[in-house]
Specification:
Elements: E1 3-12, E2 15-25, E3 30-34, H1 41-49, E4 56-61, E5 64-65, E6 76-79, H2 91-101, H3 106-119, H4 135-148, E7 153-157, H5 165-178, E8 186-190, H6 193-199, E9 202-207, E10 210-215, H7 217-222, H8 227-232, E11 239-240, E12 247-251, E13 257-272, E14 276-283, E15 286-293, E16 301-305, E17 312-315
Parallel strand pairs: 3-8, 3-9, 6-7, 7-8
Antiparallel strand pairs: 1-2, 1-4, 4-5, 9-10, 11-12, 12-17, 13-14, 13-16, 14-15
Length: about 325
């Protein structure tokens, strides 16, 4: 099973939302569409689902162009940010509705719903209304509904953005177990780089309707092709030194070390993050963020250094990476 988008354009009014977008997702692969609001990632997902039509280009699922096929016949399992549960139906009836519409027999419906409730540990909530569930339980119901579609492709539109940090950490393993790494392609839309790096096999970082760079999380982190990618991937974000001779140099905060023979800096602020601390300092090369051990003693005046091999060099005008 494969998913392919070729030369996709989408325009709303006088605004190009997607421009010549190409994307391939292989069997069992999870690709995260990552980027800020308005970059086109959710629009791409809606086009795959059939909720909107592209102005140009093709969308193929397992080799078949599905652009002319209505949404209800595309066999995609979609999980929304807002859960999209019917508030007047209990959990069991929310799950049963789609199976009933697709003509499943009563015995088959009961068996499949019982199985999925057990897998997602929702047996005790089967008769409850969505308003009686926690945020994590409502998201599990939304996942269960997508799983029951027996889809060719899974589409997840910021499914955990309404949950607190602890719940997101709890649900990530369930997502990986149930949807990611199976036989279907998975497209995961998020603005959260931590989520994308934790779940995706590859990340497509989007900007202004285009893919800025696509690759594994490690590739985007260790070898960003543009300044935009360099600063979006990694927290704290990459430091950009004052340009010299038309070259912009980036250095990651975790690659900077304290060194009495290094660049002199003045401490501006620091944040403790448990095992580490993040320093903000002023230097002759510009402001720098530095990550160091949480128990390290820091004075108001420090010296720092880094390996030249850890530098990332970009052309000042184009913002693109210079050859290593």
């Amino acid at each position: 099973m494969t998913l392919e988008l070729r030369s996709i354009n989408k325009r709303f009014g006088d605004r190009d939302v997607l421009r010549n977008l190409d994307l391939s997702v292989a069997d069992g692969e999870c690709v995260a569409l990552l980027g800020p609001s308005g970059c086109g990632k959710s629009t791409a997902l809606r086009l795959i689902a059939g909720l909107d039509d592209p102005d140009q280009g093709s969308i193929s699922i397992n080799g078949e162009n599905v652009v002319a096929i209505p949404a209800e016949r595309r066999r995609v399992g979609m999980v929304f940010q807002s859960y999209a549960l019917f508030p007047h139906l209990n959990v069991r009836k929310n799950l049963e509705l789609g199976l009933r519409i697709r003509g499943s027999r009563a015995a088959e419906r009961d068996e499949r719903i019982s199985n999925i409730l057990e897998v997602l540990q929702l047996q005790n909530q089967a008769e409850q209304l969505p308003s009686q569930l926690s945020g994590g339980q409502r998201q599990r119901v939304a996942l269960a509904r997508a799983l029951l579609r027996d889809p060719l492709v899974y589409l997840l539109d910021e499914p955990m953005s309404n949950l607190d940090a602890q719940l997101r950490e709890e649900l990530r393993p369930e997502l990986k177990r149930l949807m990611i790494g199976g036989s279907q392609p998975v497209v995961y839309v998020t603005h959260d780089q931590q989520e994308a790096m934790a779940l995706a096999d590859r990340i497509a970082l989007m900007r202004n309707g285009r893919i800025e760079q696509i690759g594994t999380p490690q590739e985007l982190y260790h070898r960003p092709e543009t300044v935009v990618v360099a600063q979006f991937i990694g927290r704290p974000q990459m430091n950009l030194l004052k340009p010299q001779n038309g070259v912009m140099v980036g250095i990651r905060p975790e690659d900077i070390r304290l060194d009495q023979q290094g660049v002199s800096c003045r401490l501006l602020s620091r944040e403790w993050h448990g095992a580490s601390q993040m320093l903000l300092v002023e230097s002759e090369r510009g402001p720098l963020r530095i990550v160091c051990a949480g128990d390290q003693t820091i004075s108001e005046q420090i010296q720092v250094n880094w390996e030249r091999s850890d530098e990332h060099q970009f052309d000042l005008d184009s913002g693109r990476r210079l050859s290593d």
